[in-house]
Design a protein that fits this description.
alpha/beta, Dihydrodipicolinate Reductase, domain 2, 5 helices, 12 strands, Gfo/Idh/MocA_Oxidoreductases
Length: 249
């Protein structure tokens, strides 16, 4: 792809994750970083394609404004802080050509019964201080910032989630943001699951255990990637490159 064909990006929000996106764009020969837009800077230039990594509560209005102007948008997680505004955004941009892929529906894993997971660490006090004090609000909780990555992985492996029950952990900071939860999940495929997460506790090794009738899956973590190993009798396979987000987010 020639330089005149490169996809042009602007990163909106130069907070904790924004610079990582900017670096990724700069390292890719097929993309060009044309601007970093942040409220602490006076000048900003919008590019044709933008990666929105701004305050969670601004994702929907910014994306709608840019989409209305004919600008392609890549919205950071979470898309919105509530279901209603998220659905409203989807209707607004009328995304097309999306292909849903699940490993369970293909039979790759055999017969899955259940999945269990854990994500836990302690976020430092400075994580919630200016200019990121918004993380103290309901938009900055561990479910929206961190668990969303696991939801992405769970949906990829087991298909759409049809029901969720969650109980919040005891508050240690006194902020509006949730600090942890215990969740039970049911997937359309029939798989059930449970997940516990918290950002106020000592670091624990994250894991995701898959319970399978006729296979032996194992999910290994290495750096920022996960590898799923599957064995059934004399057959074996691995699925690599799945994101593993143990960082603060």
């Amino acid at each position: 792809m020639g330089s005149d064909k490169r996809i042009r990006f602007a990163v909106i929000g130069a907070g904790l994750i924004g610079p990582r996106h900017a670096q990724t764009v700069m390292e890719n020969p097929n993309t060009e970083l044309v601007a970093i837009v942040d409220p602490l800077e006076s000048n900003a230039t919008l590019a044709r394609d933008l990666d929105i990594a701004h305050y969670q509560s601004l994702h929907v209005p910014l994306a709608k404004q840019l989409a209305s102007a004919g600008v392609h948008v890549l919205v950071e997680k979470p898309v919105s802080v509530d279901i209603t505004s998220g659905k409203n955004l989807v209707r607004h941009v009328s995304a097309t050509g999306v292909r849903a892929l699940t490993v369970v529906s293909s039979g790759t894993l055999g017969t899955i019964v259940a999945v269990n997971g854990l994500w836990a660490l302690r976020k430092p006090d400075e994580y919630f201080q200016h200019p990121a004090a918004w993380r103290q609000t309901e938009a900055g909780g561990v479910v929206l910032i961190n668990m969303v990555h696991k939801v992405d992985l769970l949906r990829f492996l087991f298909g759409p989630i049809t029901s969720v029950h969650a109980e919040k952990t005891l508050s240690q900071r006194g902020f509006e943001a949730d600090e942890g939860a215990a969740l039970t999940l049911r997937f359309r495929s029939g798989v059930v699951g449970s997940f516990v997460l918290a950002d106020t506790v000592a670091l624990s090794v994250p894991h995701m255990r898959i319970m399978c009738v006729n296979c032996q899956p194992r999910l290994d973590s290495a750096g920022t990637k996960e590898m799923l190993h599957i064995s059934r009798g004399s057959e074996a396979m691995s699925i690599t490159g799945m994101s593993h987000h143990m960082q603060l987010g």
